[in-house]
Design goal:
Layout lengths: L1 E8 L5 E13 L5 E14 L9 H11 L8 H28 L23 H7 L4 H15 L5 H5 L2 H14 L4 H15 L5 H6 L2 H32 L6 H35 L3 H9 L2 H8 L5 H14 L3 H9 L2 H5 L8 H14 L3 H9 L2 H7 L7 H12 L2 H4 L7 H11 L7 H10 L3 H7 L4 H12 L2 H11 L4 H4 L5 H7 L6 H13 L7 H7 L2 H8 L8 H14 L3 H9 L2 H11 L4 H14 L3 H10 L2 H7 L6 H17 L1 H15 L1 H12 L15 H4 L24 H6 E4 L2 E4 L6
Antiparallel strand pairs: 1-2, 2-3, 4-5
Helix pairs in contact: 1-2, 3-4, 4-7, 6-7, 7-10, 9-10, 9-12, 10-13, 12-13, 13-16, 16-19, 19-22, 21-22, 22-25, 24-25, 25-28, 27-28, 28-31, 31-34, 33-34, 34-37, 37-38
Length: 751
């Protein structure tokens, strides 16, 4: 009995799928059912003539008449499905085209030489094909080729899947006979590859351990290829060394060997391609990928990069790209000198191979050592040349961006035509915001002085400033800020833009943009710049003071830039006085209290004090009206070297102008320098049992009740080492030695 079921459209082809059920029953002698079995089946009706002009009604009637599985009552449903297929055609075609452009997955392998035969396989003759797998090698090749023909049609895969005999026989033959025939191995692996294209069939491949077998085959074939090459090289060497006419036989022998080698390589690459593709499909599961890694898949793939076959190389590089996201795999690639092999493929006439190679290089460029290697093998000019290639421009910029992160390589960009191209791309961007990759790359390059000279050539700076101010782009302004940090002619070009930048510093603008504008202004340490005029004209003093409030709403980044800006303008005598008068110094001390854990803040605030003690007006305010020197004394011994350095320089200036503070600073320096000795003396003074250790008189608490520098009795005198006139007797050094302030010698010390 046959019972009709649902009708669906084919997911990818112009076809209808008719589902039906077959029920077979064995009847007994009396006609009653003894044994029954049901099987669900499907029939595919391909509609090759269906196009935009097809009469759907006529076609639906024809389908129902010719297919006995569809009941006439379903005519309306068939019409609807055909109408859907008719409208889907263009959309699916364009989607397919778009997908083809975007996807980086390699194409399925075509039928290889040896896999195509004249016969047309039928799913009903599977038993015959299985029997062929038990015969000699030529019959096995024929049987596997016929099964492969069926497996290449996805509609047959489920049917083949339930035929355990066939799959078991194929796995056995592959395991036993793969070394005897490369065509046989290729056919059988190709059959399993067809299954591997669908995730739900991966279990059957794992069950028969086809993945592990493929890895053994790949390893063996790569080693065989090395032996062929060695043999060929020996024959070629002999041919070159013996160039006499009587050695024509040797020459012919070499040509014959070379021809045979080329034929073997073609067949071997077919096998490698299908085996690697099968493994790539299985590697969807990271657990299986880890097993492959443990079996040295990375080394095998990197070895395969020496091949010339584009299709095989695309597959190998795609697999390596997938593996490269794990650090262990990346380290294996480093061992195999992968960068040297990949650099040969850039540039490359095969667009797909070039694109996937660049993507692999991008993954590898996250490693500092590999970036260095890329530069040393000459990849920089090659990538720069690709900036004009629309398909690969974005990936090339990303790799170059990674290289530009290392300071030692930034200057190398000045010796390529990279910067003019980037500037052209920057100004050609139609949108408000420039591509993130492009502007990030430019920001890095602007951190190098030689690059900046090239960027500012002609009207470079003017155009950058114009665009940044027009679109209020913080990233573009960050690039300008980097440009402004370099001394020389480029910094002088900023004088005409000081007013434009100062005008942006207000509460109305976006904070990120204001931070970059302030940072750029803070870099302009130009003696010819009248900062007092700028501060007054653009009313910046109230803005700067307002942002210094610790409890304010401003972000730390903005507050830090305000402090740096104050440090820059404080270099000007009149500006420093203006700021001091406005009460900015107490605000800075308050901020110093609030941000004492942040080294950057502390360092910049101390630098402001350093600038202000240079000027008479502000020096008196800092020394006499604030507690700034006391804070500086506390920070003299900070763990941060930069903070200590700025502190010392500032305190030296304060000590020069104020005697009282000079004494305090000197005392603190002495105390710090001799802290261990002083602590020891203090602790002994506090111990009652050892109160008069050094004589009959108690020791005074010297720091609290007197100045340490005015206590000559603490130094050695005539009773000890130093004679009254200050001369030292040579005999002393013969008998006694000093160790850490204690006397050590042969004779007991006596007064």
């Amino acid at each position: 009995k046959v019972k009709g079921g649902n009708i669906d459209v084919h997911p990818s082809e112009k076809a209808l799928i008719v589902h039906y059920e077959v029920e077979a029953t064995i009847l007994g002698e009396l006609g009653d059912p003894m044994l029954g079995e049901r099987k669900e089946c499907q029939k595919i009706i391909r509609l090759k003539s269906l196009n935009a002009n097809t009469d759907i009604g006529s076609l639906a009637r024809k389908v129902v008449e010719e297919c006995k599985l569809i009941h006439p009552s379903k005519l309306g449903e068939v019409e609807q499905l055909l109408y859907y297929l008719q409208n889907r055609r263009d959309a699916s075609a364009s989607a397919g085209k778009e997908k083809k452009e975007k996807t980086s997955k390699p194409k399925d392998p075509p039928p290889f030489e040896g896999t195509e035969i004249d016969e047309v396989a039928s799913i009903n003759d599977m038993d015959e094909y299985i029997e062929l797998l038990y015969e000699d090698i030529p019959d096995k090749v024929r049987g596997s080729a016929l099964i492969l023909q069926l497996a290449r049609n996805p509609d047959n895969l489920e049917e083949l899947l339930i035929n355990e005999t066939a799959l078991g026989a194929l796995a056995r033959v592959l395991r036993e006979d793969w070394k005897q025939s490369i065509e046989l191995a290729t056919n059988i692996i190709y059959i399993f590859f067809c299954f591997s294209s669908f995730s739900q069939f991966h279990g059957i491949i794992t069950h028969y351990k086809i993945g592990a077998l493929c890895m053994n085959i790949i390893d063996h074939e790569l080693k065989r290829h090395e032996l062929w090459q060695e043999e060929l090289a020996k024959k070629k060497k002999a041919d070159i060394l013996l160039i006499y006419p009587e050695n024509q036989t040797l020459k012919k022998d070499y040509e014959k060997t070379y021809k045979k080698y080329k034929g073997l390589v073609v067949k071997q690459e077919q096998l490698l391609r299908v085996a690697i593709y099968l493994l790539l499909n299985l590697a969807e599961d990271t657990r299986i990928e880890l097993k492959m890694r443990n079996k040295n898949i990375v080394h095998m793939l990197v070895k395969a990069l020496d091949r010339d076959n584009f299709e095989l190389l695309i597959l190998v590089v795609t697999f390596l790209k997938k593996l490269s996201i794990f650090m262990e795999n990346k380290n294996d690639m480093v061992e195999m000198d992968i960068v040297e092999k990949l650099v040969k493929m850039v540039p490359c006439e095969h667009e797909d191979l070039l694109n996937i190679t660049l993507r692999l290089l991008l993954n590898l460029s996250f490693d500092t050592g590999l970036r260095s290697k890329m530069v040393h093998v000459g990849l920089l000019p090659k990538l720069t040349a690709l900036l004009g290639n629309e398909n690969n421009k974005k990936v090339a910029i990303c790799i170059l961006y990674h290289i530009s992160m290392d300071d030692c390589f930034k200057s190398m960009f000045a010796y390529t035509d990279c910067i003019p191209q980037l500037m052209k791309m920057l100004f050609a961007c139609p949108d408000e915001r420039v591509d993130l990759e492009l502007i990030s790359f430019c920001i890095n390059l602007a951190a190098n002085k030689r690059n900046v000279q090239l960027i500012c050539e002609g009207n470079g700076l003017k155009m950058l400033m114009k665009r940044a101010l027009k679109f209020k782009d913080p990233l573009l302004m960050k690039m300008i800020r980097n440009i402004s940090q370099h001394d020389g002619p480029t910094k002088s070009q900023f004088i005409e833009y000081v007013g434009d930048l100062a005008a942006q510093v207000s509460n109305d603008e976006e904070e990120e943009f204001v931070i970059e504008c302030l940072g750029t202004l803070a870099n302009l340490t130009l003696p010819e710049l009248d900062w007092e005029l700028v501060l007054k004209e653009y009313k910046l003093v109230p803005y700067l003071k307002d942002k210094l409030k610790p409890a304010g709403s401003a972000e730390d980044d903005l507050v830090l830039e305000v402090v740096i800006m104050i440090g820059t303008v404080s270099m000007d005598d009149s500006c420093a006085a203006l700021l001091a008068k406005s009460g900015i110094i107490p605000a800075l001390i308050e901020l110093l209290n609030a941000q004492q854990e942040d080294d950057e803040f502390v360092c910049q605030i101390i630098y402001v004090f350093y600038q202000m003690v240079f000027h008479q007006a502000t020096r008196d305010v800092i020394i006499k009206e604030t507690q700034a020197p006391a804070y500086l004394i506390d920070l003299m011994h900070d763990k941060n070297a930069e903070i200590r350095k700025v502190c010392d320089n500032t305190l030296d200036i304060i000590a020069e102008y104020d005697e009282e503070w000079a004494k305090k600073i000197q005392t603190e320096k002495f105390r710090w320098h001799n802290s261990q000795w002083l602590e020891m003396v203090e602790s002994r003074q506090m111990d009652d049992s050892e109160q008069y250790l050094y004589g009959d008189d108690p020791i005074e608490p010297y720091i609290h009740e007197g100045d340490i520098l005015e206590r000559p009795d603490l130094y050695y005198n005539a009773d000890g080492l130093i004679v009254p006139d200050g001369a030292v007797s040579p005999d002393i050094f013969g008998d006694y030695q000093l160790q850490n302030g204690d006397l050590v010698g042969q004779h007991p010390f006596s007064g």
